[in-house]
Amino acid sequence: MVTIRSTGGRVAAYAWLVFAALNLADLLFGITGDASYTPMTFGIGVLLLLGSGIAYAVGLRPAILGDDDAVTIRNPLRDVRAPWAAVRRIEGTNAVKVRFTGPDGAETESRAWVHQTSPRAQAKAEARARKEASEQQEFDLRGRTPAAYAAQQLNEIRDRRRPRTRSGAPDRAAAAKEAADDSARGTVTWSVPALAALGVPLALLVVVAIVGAVS
What we know:
- The longest helix has 23 residues, at 7-29.
- This protein has six helices and eight strands.
- It has helices at residues 7-29, 39-60, 119-135, 146-161, 172-179, 192-214; strands spanning 2-4, 63-66, 70-74, 78-83, 87-92, 96-101, 107-111, 187-190.
- The chain folds into two domains: 2-61 and 191-214, no CATH class; 69-189, no CATH class.
- The strands form two sheets. It has a five-stranded antiparallel sheet with strand order 1-2-3-4-8. Strands 5-6-7 form a three-stranded antiparallel sheet, with helices on one face.
- A hairpin with a 3-residue loop joins strand 3 and strand 4 (78-83).
- Helix 1 runs antiparallel to helix 2 (39-60) and helix 2 (39-60) runs antiparallel to helix 6.
- By secondary structure, the protein is an alpha+beta fold.
- It starts with a strand and ends with a helix.
């Protein structure tokens, strides 16, 4: 199984969670001063919770998972799971893109949140890779960027799952039959934990605003 995450995003998310936990403890127990339970302190606490929800959805949740059965893309608010038989193409350009047969049978494309880069950053990385390749008398850009390396790993799993002949070569007839199998379809679902992590603090923030306006 392959698990691909953003190390920087996870570090930033954990840093915020620690910061939020310390500040919430200070608000509740008055570690650095007297604890005061006012609409303002309640609002600050809700904002810390909202920030924690964002840290979870954006920093901790996103991942690309590849196992023997399917590839799963966890983005901040939605989950995409495509069986290998439904996958048509996996690319790693400025983001990891998976094209697969969707729930309605139509071909669709999902873009992973993890390892996204701007086209300019991608062009710089490829130029740097070309320079290194020319110095080493090689020209292999696979793995030179995080998105390209992630796509390479997923494609290797997909290739291993393809039927093969006795000689070890891919069985083209079986692969074509698998590609034509309409029963193999991916799914796209909303993440309930992520929606709750953002929705609950937002609802509390609206309540705080209403109470503040009334008082």
